[in-house]
Amino acid sequence: MTKQNIAGEELVQLAKLALEEVKAQDIQVIDVRDKHSLTDYMIIATGTSNRQINAMAEKVREIVKQKGVMPLGEEGKGDSDWVLLDLNDVVVHMMTAAARQFYDLERLWLGAEQSRAADGKHHSPENTHEHFVKLNKDLD
């Protein structure tokens, strides 16, 4: 197998296709070219279990290898809640929903206004922060 030079955008599409094939949830692509010098894109996807996360990683690895791309590294194999696959121009993060919420990589790389922590539930009217309740009473 000869190593091919695949552009980051094509690698993103291959990885997304692989993740979709194994039913990964909430696949997000973040362009970090202007924020980070080690990679161009980050893909974050949720798996429903550690077993599915391992299947996701295996499928991405399989699809990119068919195009001659050899992953540079992998972290979190086995029963981890977070598996990272480094494809050089693209880093794929595959996580359980709990790990994804806890680490909130979207907020880190996109900014606080893009945060998906707690699925936005912490901003719902039913879960108003105590300091906002006090502020609103003071304004009345």
UniProtKB/TrEMBL annotation:
<keyword id="KW-0963">Cytoplasm</keyword>
<keyword id="KW-0678">Repressor</keyword>
<dbReference type="Pfam" id="PF02410">
    <property type="entry name" value="RsfS"/>
</dbReference>
<dbReference type="InterPro" id="IPR043519">
    <property type="entry name" value="NT_sf"/>
</dbReference>
<comment type="subunit">
    <text>Interacts with ribosomal protein uL14 (rplN).</text>
</comment>
<dbReference type="GO" id="GO:0090071">
    <property type="term" value="P:negative regulation of ribosome biogenesis"/>
</dbReference>
<dbReference type="GO" id="GO:0005737">
    <property type="term" value="C:cytoplasm"/>
</dbReference>
<comment type="function">
    <text>Functions as a ribosomal silencing factor. Interacts with ribosomal protein uL14 (rplN), blocking formation of intersubunit bridge B8. Prevents association of the 30S and 50S ribosomal subunits and the formation of functional ribosomes, thus repressing translation.</text>
</comment>
<dbReference type="GO" id="GO:0043023">
    <property type="term" value="F:ribosomal large subunit binding"/>
</dbReference>
<dbReference type="GO" id="GO:0042256">
    <property type="term" value="P:cytosolic ribosome assembly"/>
</dbReference>
<protein>
    <recommendedName>
        <fullName>Ribosomal silencing factor RsfS</fullName>
    </recommendedName>
</protein>
<feature type="region of interest" description="Disordered">
    <location>
        <begin position="117"/>
        <end position="140"/>
    </location>
</feature>
<comment type="similarity">
    <text>Belongs to the Iojap/RsfS family.</text>
</comment>
<keyword id="KW-0810">Translation regulation</keyword>
<dbReference type="InterPro" id="IPR004394">
    <property type="entry name" value="Iojap/RsfS/C7orf30"/>
</dbReference>
<dbReference type="GO" id="GO:0017148">
    <property type="term" value="P:negative regulation of translation"/>
</dbReference>
